[in-house]
Specification:
The structure holds two protein chains of two kinds. Chain A is mainly β. Chain A contains no helices and eleven strands. In chain A, the strands form two sheets. In chain A, strands 2, 4, 5, 6, 9, 10 and 11 form a seven-stranded mixed β-sheet that branches. A four-stranded antiparallel β-sheet of chain A has the order 1-3-8-7, with no helix packed on it. Chain B is mainly β. In chain B, the strands form two sheets. In chain B, strands 2, 4, 5, 9, 10 and 11 form a six-stranded mixed β-sheet that branches. A five-stranded antiparallel β-sheet of chain B has the order 1-3-8-7-6, with no helix packed on it. The radius of gyration of chain B is 13 Å and the shape is globular. The chains are: A mainly beta, B mainly beta. Chain A binds chain B through residues 4, 6, 32, 34, 41-46, 49, 91, 93, 95, 97, 105-113, 115, and chain B through 4, 31-32, 36, 41-46, 49, 51, 89, 91, 98-105.
């Protein structure tokens, strides 16, 4: 259980175009989803927190108009990179949060990631 | 601002060795600490989660300890195998928030 999928796994796009990445929780409902970015040999950096039915909360330094997040249902969140530039090339990973079995805390389950290359 | 540091950045050991990975965090007011495994070009697999009130968690050959007051955690891997080769990430969450702050990871190579 607790499987999170991402689509696509890899995408190459030209500079100036937009790319949409989907994150789905396959066997559970997630009220909260998170989007991370990981550059080579660097750690995961949280970009934004996405709650179903409300606007995403962006971390400091992340442009909300460039990275559009939509969380339309309890099982789907999308990240759209608008007007992509080569410096946006990175590994994007989403996670979905659900309560643990003890119902006392939450746990995040991570997707397999999407490799974005902007040429 | 919470900062998570992992030492060493890379580690290479022969198969069968027991090894320890280290994680330290600057703000001891954490909610929980997690250890993840990441294979090249892949997402994260959760290995162990330690609540702030706990001292350790075990799963198979893995044992994670937490010393919250000193801001440290260790991941102990017994009888390492080549299949253990991966990058191991440590992450902490603060009280009242689900946000995770990650370290840069330790890249482990277990040589047959």
């Amino acid at each position: 259980g607790a499987v999170v999928s991402q689509h696509p796994s890899r995408v190459i796009c030209k500079s100036g175009t937009s790319v949409k990445i989907e994150c789905r929780s396959l066997d559970f409902q997630a009220t909260t989803m998170f989007w991370y970015r990981q550059f080579p040999k660097q750690s995961l950096m949280l970009m934004a927190t996405s709650n179903e039915g409300s606007k995403a909360t962006y971390e400091q330094g992340v442009e909300k108009d460039k990275f559009l997040i939509n969380h339309a249902s309890l099982t789907l969140s999308t990240l759209t990179v608008t007007s992509a530039h080569p410096e946006d090339s990175s590994f994007y990973i989403c996670s979905a949060s659900t309560t643990r079995r003890d119902r006392l805390s939450y746990e995040q389950y991570f997707g397999p990631g999407t490799r974005l290359t902007v040429t | 601002k919470q900062e998570v540091t992992q030492i060493p950045a890379a580690l290479s050991v022969p198969e069968g060795e027991n090894l320890v990975l280290n994680c330290s965090f600057t703000d001891s007011a954490i909610y929980n600490l997690q250890w993840f495994r990441q294979d090249p070009g892949k997402g994260l697999t959760s290995l162990l989660l330690i609540q702030s009130s706990q001292r350790e968690q075990t799963s198979g050959r893995l044992n994670a300890s937490l010393d919250k007051s000193s801001g440290r955690s260790t991941l102990y891997i017994a009888a390492s195998q080549p299949g253990d080769s991966a990058t191991y990430l440590c992450a902490v969450s603060q009280g009242g928030s689900e946000k995770l702050v990650f370290g840069k990871g330790t890249k482990l190579t277990v040589n047959p």
